[in-house]
Amino acid sequence: MMEFLTGVKQKETVGIQEILEGDYKGKCVKINGAVHNIRDMGDVAFLILRKADGLVQCVYEEGKTDFNIKELKEESAIEASGVVAMEERAPFGFEIRLKSVRVLSKPDEVLPIAVNKYKMHTSLEARLAMRPVSLRNVRERAKFRIQEGLVRGFRDFLHSQGFTEIHTPKIVARGAEGGSNVFRLDYFNKKAELGQSPQFYKQTMVGVYDRVFEVAPVFRAEKHNTTRHLNEYIGLDFEMGYIDGFEDVMAMETGFLQYTMELLEREYHKELKMLDVSLPAVDKIPSVRFDKAKELVSEKYNRKIKNPYDLEPEEELLIGRYFKEEYDRDFVFVTHYPAKKRPFYAMEDPADPRFTLSFDLLFKGLEVTTGGQRIHDYQEILAKMEKRHMEPEDIASYLMIFKYGMPPHGGLGIGLERLTMRLLDEQNVRETSLFPRDVTRLEP
Amino acid sequence: MMEFLTGVKQKETVGIQEILEGDYKGKCVKINGAVHNIRDMGDVAFLILRKADGLVQCVYEEGKTDFNIKELKEESAIEASGVVAMEERAPFGFEIRLKSVRVLSKPDEVLPIAVNKYKMHTSLEARLAMRPVSLRNVRERAKFRIQEGLVRGFRDFLHSQGFTEIHTPKIVARGAEGGSNVFRLDYFNKKAELGQSPQFYKQTMVGVYDRVFEVAPVFRAEKHNTTRHLNEYIGLDFEMGYIDGFEDVMAMETGFLQYTMELLEREYHKELKMLDVSLPAVDKIPSVRFDKAKELVSEKYNRKIKNPYDLEPEEELLIGRYFKEEYDRDFVFVTHYPAKKRPFYAMEDPADPRFTLSFDLLFKGLEVTTGGQRIHDYQEILAKMEKRHMEPEDIASYLMIFKYGMPPHGGLGIGLERLTMRLLDEQNVRETSLFPRDVTRLEP
């Protein structure tokens, strides 16, 4: 008398892909979705069904169906029955000639914004305020399908390269990389903060698995409200041991980008086309030293170098422009950042310790990655901490890994929303975060 | 003169898999790794190299190598050169007869715990305190490879079923599901908390993509220190639209388990064998009503039902035992939980509104999943909130999705560490979290 679950239930309804691949012409099918749009032309009406992978045109002819189109509301969820017919002008080259409709759910009110228009023409502010429903717009949701592709590419590629996926805690003890831009919280009467990066943990895990990666939220309490900062974002992090230099890390990132652009081209073509995205060339990515990049830009664009140890956002933009104009490249690695601007664990360049064996990756003039080789020697990291007046006791469990031996290693962190933003040529990083967190925005 | 990165750098060193698959017998190779163990027998010494995917036996014979084994320390990172020879007694059936060793890094101190023993025989407390290095033990790290496999299985299976991966914020506005067990923080002078689950967001995204999933940290400020609770854990969450009932959700979870057990068998066989894990049968998973389960257990084990609306941990254990003894099953779905014990968004059973269309999945008597069908009608959810004295304004952006129309939907959340714990027959959930967070533990 006991009931058993034996696996995924076969549905009676069909999907778009099934219709495209199967022999459904002239056959009656059941298909479900949300009523995206109704164009009522009197005797005939077009009912556009919104499904996860696209829109399906359904045709209503009075007298041929057992329901009244006037009673159907947009954003109702329905199960439609009808006959598949070829129709060149319909989204996937077919339409459903409706026989009947079963209403699964109804909205309470009419949408206040034109979610069912191809382009919404609504301000970012308004779209964000209505995000839970504005994401139903086909172009809005296409962005996050492409974002999914970037994450899949990151994981699948690294897996193929012998990396192990890890999950590290986001509530961490106070005092580590610290500084002013951390969110603090009380953890059972202990002082805690939200992780600004999985840096210490991923380095730790290099001692365990040699190569590791993590995809997880990162928290930064930065107070400036810009078009490129979020206070919570998704970090694509990896860390690899047994490197010969930080160039190995850049090479691995190049491999990730190559793999991922191919994946997008192959599996996210529809979304790329919808958003009119041209994928950047990643067969070879130029690499330029930090000081050299400043010089090149200063010369070409006749711009004075104000601070030799810092890159201003405008300089990053100009570096991007330079490599676009001179080499037709959207990506450029900038290497050997000044030690002053890098965290204590960054390895200094033995040839000139004012600089580090580190890099940023700029994408159309915006930093989307920070990485480099890390110090692996215990005495060296202690000396570096002393120079920076840091207390070893504060991060004893991190230092433990060096004390007991760590291979040479390096890694990087990519900001997922920024990478998506540049890929889609968006002007504000909030466009590419499902539910962005900024200084004024805690909802939705 | 510009340098370019063109993709992953080819390494001179070989990996274990390469040696196993290639024609390396009698050939000289370079291989890197950590010195896991040195057994010095005088003229001959065995040097065990630890790599991500296993241990490699290297043989040192005095006079045949250009270095002194006495100078090598355990936990040094090295690059060894030597000749591959077949050797049945070595871990993968081969060993490396050393010619030379290049030391890449050295530890500062000797490990205080026997990481290089097959079984550590060290208390959980001691292992957790030393977690950054105790994870280097081959059996410790095998657990988290299997955990990786569970996550891969979850994602790959759901992707194949048309689910889209999403990333939702972990810093959320105060007031939602709330209660006492939330971590609170100040978010730019606004009251915020850490997400207890992605519930509202994943439901929201069903309106966008029909089927979605997320793998992300979940935070619970529960004050009890038990063997099955963590204050931060990884939630495997999915939510699916257009369901006919909550049975569709259970069927999907069954499919996930079937897919994943096969994946583990195929790709994580080495780790399963090392930890002596037998995979549970998942071809069919029994399902029993909550009230019926209480009855069965009460009858068979002669136990009084104290509270008909709650399952005590001991009762869960007995339900697990019952289905093991009667049906030889490790998993059992318990359905129709009392409405009182479920959140406001749970759909009540129209046949008896004291119960909900919901379920837990027990694995060897431990709850590893909670799921069910959700209310999708705007008026219905408002009425339910009123009954529970909740304020609609507090969660206006969540309620927005129902106001403007949502399909029938349901979903579930799986606790990754608990699932891993039961699979590996561990007795404490801290064993299966890389860096566990509990009431007293904020480090490492």
Task: Compile the SSE list and pairings.
2 copies of one chain form a homodimer.
Chain A: E1 3-5, H1 16-21, E2 28-40, E3 44-51, E4 54-61, E5 77-86, E6 94-105, H2 124-129, H3 131-134, H4 138-160, E7 164-165, E8 171-173, E9 184-187, E10 190-194, H5 199-209, E11 211-219, E12 232-241, H6 246-267, H7 269-274, E13 285-289, H8 290-300, H9 313-327, E14 331-335, E15 358-363, E16 366-374, H10 378-387, H11 396-403, E17 409-415, H12 416-423
Parallel strand pairs in A: 4-6, 7-11, 13-14
Antiparallel strand pairs in A: 2-3, 2-5, 3-4, 5-6, 8-10, 9-10, 11-12, 12-17, 14-15, 15-16, 16-17
Helix pairs in contact in A: 4-6, 8-9, 10-11
What are the defining features of this structure?
homodimer; 444 residues; alpha+beta; OB fold (Dihydrolipoamide Acetyltransferase, E2P); BirA Bifunctional Protein, domain 2; 2 domains; 8-stranded mixed beta sheet; 5-stranded mixed β-barrel; 12 helices; elongated
Give a brief rundown of this model.
Chain A has 444 residues and is an alpha+beta fold. Helix content of chain A is 29%, strand content 27%.
Structure notes:
Two copies of one chain form a homodimer. Chain A has 444 residues and is an alpha+beta fold. Chain A has two domains: 90 residues, OB fold (Dihydrolipoamide Acetyltransferase, E2P), CATH 2.40.50.140; 295 residues, BirA Bifunctional Protein, domain 2, CATH 3.30.930. Chain A is 29% helix and 27% strand. The first copy, chain A, has an eight-stranded mixed β-sheet, with helices on both faces. In chain A, α4 crosses α6, α8 packs across α9 and α10 packs antiparallel against α11. Chain A starts with a strand and ends in a 21-residue tail after the last helix. The model of chain A has no long low-confidence stretch (mean pLDDT 95). Chains A and B meet through β1, β2, α3, α4 and β7 of A and β1, β2, α3, α4 and β7 of B.
